[in-house]
Here is the input.
Amino acid sequence: MSIYSLVDVESDLIIGNCMNIVGLSGSRQYRARNFYELILVGLRLNEIYIKHCLATKANMARICINMLSQDEKVIGSLYFALAKPYYFHKNPIPQEIFNLELSGGFWVEPSYEAMEIWRKWMISKPTIKNTWSSLSQRRRLGWLEVVRMNHATYRNIPTNNNYFLDMTHVRDSVSFYCALGEAMNGPGGYYGFSLDSLDDCFCGGFGATPPFVLHLCNGNFDELMHRDKIKESEREKLRKLQELLISNQVTLVCD
Here is the structure.
């Protein structure tokens, strides 16, 4: 079964599918910053793409790596630029499945933590809220990377004007964004990871647009900002987050 599909950025043609990509999520201490040596394992080339390359002598220089779910639907994409373009008309073209070695860097380098989460999502996406609550702080940041990228693969149409955010596991701005995404768009949902991205979400394309009501369940901003162990810098982030919500006609209700 293929778990990655590859698309040529220049021609927008499907290059092929592969069973695995070795080197995609190796620890940073073993490689230079944003330089990856990848092995596409079990690659099966698309005949239309090969005919295109042979006819035009086009090279493969920039590719989109699509991560696939168990039913082979795209759930996220990474863009990769080859250090040296690959020419199919200059290399033997295998007729069946083979391995292909590539080197280069990502346009936006995925974190190690995000790739850990992607591997789980490719087997099964979360079906209940708060799956992120057991993750460390670094992995929660990885979670926000994943949900942001995954959101680009679907469009959620808002169905009501009331949303319910579970504050049980919210301890700071990062966990608030994890919980907010799920309040707005269900398990594994996305609705911003920073003030600027949240402001973008208010403009549309990410589900609900203001005005709407956000119910804070099992906690509220005042309780959160006055916790004994919270840092002053984090308190300021939460204050600005609360102000941004209110200034954009989001009514906050403490349930």
User: Anything to note?
Assistant: Helices lie at 47-56, 112-123, 137-151, 173-185, 195-202, 221-225, 232-247. The CA atoms of residues 65 and 78 lie 5 Å apart. The mean pLDDT is 92.
